[in-house]
């Protein structure tokens, strides 16, 4: 959300990012259905039964008797150890697919920037700038901690990797409310069913110094994760946990915010610095190009709609836009608008879109509402 080389623009960008530090990861694109991850089955070895020997025939007195062979038990195999860092099997979806118009998460001090809908377990998941904890929220507002990890600083973007039954969390120091904090940025990986921590990856271990802010996350078909650093570029974390720089200033993306994966093999990335949208092939990030739009769009959270359109939180106007493209996202147009949404990010629930209202202005002033709204988004004609 911020950029080192634009001095005159820095104060305005910091204000934008304070109002909408983004982080929702997109749900699975409408043309791609999550596959069921294979379930690891631990077998308990048993000892082979010992059969009694066949009775031996009485030998002819003139012939030497044949020796009898008594079968022995087969050696017991070593037990299979299932790694504790593997996610559990993907559960079947539960609960209703359609939700209410409004859900209130009554937790003062929460300030949720990221939201995801967990269809497998019938709940919303919310991050927390104020606490770092990831919370689960049901349709009636029932609210409980899901992931409590002392290493979570501020949970910004959330991304469900349904195929691998994982929840990915952008974990970062919230330097916009406390500039004295040391820059920290991690990718937390948790089991979606149990909340067990699978990994916590330091994104800055080999990164240059200066400010960094882990914001939003996308996952490609091979399980590679892409994390926007709103102070510079996009990190790639491969399936082994190796961190590398994916895209940045050289490609024109100096303040990336929202990010989403398309099953045709590319990412769409919002660029806060110029109100633009970039398309970046995962196998050739150097060929990233700017999507032609009919007006600047300062996008935050992104999510696919079932009809193939892209829902975008436009935080400058306080609206949620529905973008469509007929040429593989070389160009895009605004197809519909849902106004009056002071939202940060959005989540797809079947054919419904829900937005979370983070109340960033109150966060900046040191106050908090009694509850945070999860609101159904309806687009006009």
How would you explain this protein's 3D organization?
There is one protein chain. With 381 residues, the protein is mainly β. It has a single domain, classed as TolB, C-terminal domain (Neuraminidase, 6 Propeller), CATH 2.120.10. 5% of the residues lie in helices and 34% in strands. The chain is built from 2 helices and 24 strands. The chain has helices at residues 7-19, 360-365; strands at residues 102-105, 115-118, 123-126, 134-137, 143-147, 154-161, 166-172, 185-191, 197-202, 214-219, 225-229, 233-237, 243-247, 256-262, 266-271, 276-281, 289-290, 299-304, 310-314, 319-324, 333-338, 345-349, 352-356, 372-377. A 4-stranded antiparallel beta sheet has the order 1-24-23-22, with no helix packed on it. Strand 18 (299-304) and strand 19 form a beta hairpin. It is globular and about 45 Å long.
The ordered string of helix (H) and strand (E) elements is HEEEEEEEEEEEEEEEEEEEEEEEHE
- Second-tier CATH architecture: 6 Propeller
Total count of strands? 24
The CATH homologous superfamily is named TolB, C-terminal domain
Helix content: under 10%
Q: What is the average per-residue confidence, as pLDDT, rounded to a whole number?
A: 82
CATH fold-type name? Neuraminidase
Give the overall silhouette.
Answer: globular
CATH class: Mainly Beta
Which strands sit side by side, in order, in the main sheet?
1-24-23-22
Name the beta content range.
25-35%
Q: Tally the structural domains.
A: 1
Strand pairing plus helix content: what structural class?
Answer: mainly beta
Distance between the termini: 31 Å
What is the number of helical segments per DSSP (H or I, 4+ residues)? 2
